[in-house]
Amino acid sequence: MGHGAWGMDGDRVTLEGCAEADAAETLVRHQMADDYLRHGLTWDSERFHQRFPERCWRWAVCDRGRVGLLAWEHSADVAVLRELHVVPDERGKGIGTHLLALWEDMARLSGAQCLRLRVLSGSRAVSWYQRQGYQQVRGCPTPHGQVLGLEKAVVHDRAAHSGAAKG
C-alpha cells in the first residue's frame, strides 16, 4: 500500500502500513530522547502501546529501507499529526517536508479543515513547523518548558471546484 512519491537523487519514498508497535516505539523514543530529557519528562511505554491502535501509522520507505515514520488521527474536521520522524541518516534531504506535505494532502482530501500538532518548546522542530505555516495557539507547561500546540488552516483549492474559468 504505497502512497505518494518523492524524488531526490533518484529516490522514491512511499508510505507503507506500520503495525509494529515495538519498532515504532523504538524510533519515536530514540528521536524524542533529548527533548524529553531537556523537559524533565519520562517515557511511558505502556501509554505508547495503549494509544498505538488509535492512530494511523505509516513508515516512509525507499530503496534504502525505512527512512521515516508518520502517525496521525482524524476526527470530524480536524486532523492531528501525532508523530513525524525522519531517521538521523536521512535528515536534510527534504524527506520531512515531503512527509508533512503528503500528510496535509491526505488530511485535506479526507475533509479536514484544521491541522494540529504538538511539539516541545526548544525543539528544532518548532521553527521548522512555523516555516511550514503552523502557528502556536496554546502552550501547556512541562517541568522545564512547554508543550506547544500548533495549528494550520487547511487551504481547499476553490478554483478547482468553481467550474468554468472567467474569461
Commentary on this structure:
This protein is of the alpha+beta class and 167 residues long. The protein has a single domain (14-155), classed as Gcn5-related N-acetyltransferase (GNAT) (Aminopeptidase, 3-Layer(aba) Sandwich). The protein has 5 helices and 7 strands. The chain has helices at 21-39, 45-51, 95-109, 124-131, 158-161; strands at residues 14-17, 56-62, 65-75, 78-86, 114-120, 135-142, 145-153. Strand 3 and strand 4 form a beta hairpin. The protein is globular. Residues 160-167 have low confidence and may be disordered.
Keywords, separated by commas or semicolons:
167 residues, alpha+beta, 5 helices, globular, disordered C terminus
Structure classification: alpha+beta
- Approximately how much beta-strand content do the residues carry? 25-35%
Number of E strands: 7
Strand neighbour order, sheet with most strands: 1-2-3-4-5-7-6
Question: Which percent range fits the helix content?
Answer: 25-40%
CATH topology: Aminopeptidase
In CATH, the homologous superfamily goes by the name Gcn5-related N-acetyltransferase (GNAT)
Q: Please report the number of helical segments.
A: 5
Q: If you average the pLDDT, what whole number results?
A: 89
Shape: globular
Terminal Cα span: 42 Å
Total individual domains: 1
CATH architecture: 3-Layer(aba) Sandwich
CATH class: Alpha Beta
Largest sheet: 7 strands, mixed
Element order: H for helix, E for strand: EHHEEEHEHEEH
Computed over alpha carbons, the radius of gyration is: 17 Å
Regions with pLDDT < 50 over 5+ consecutive residues? 160-167
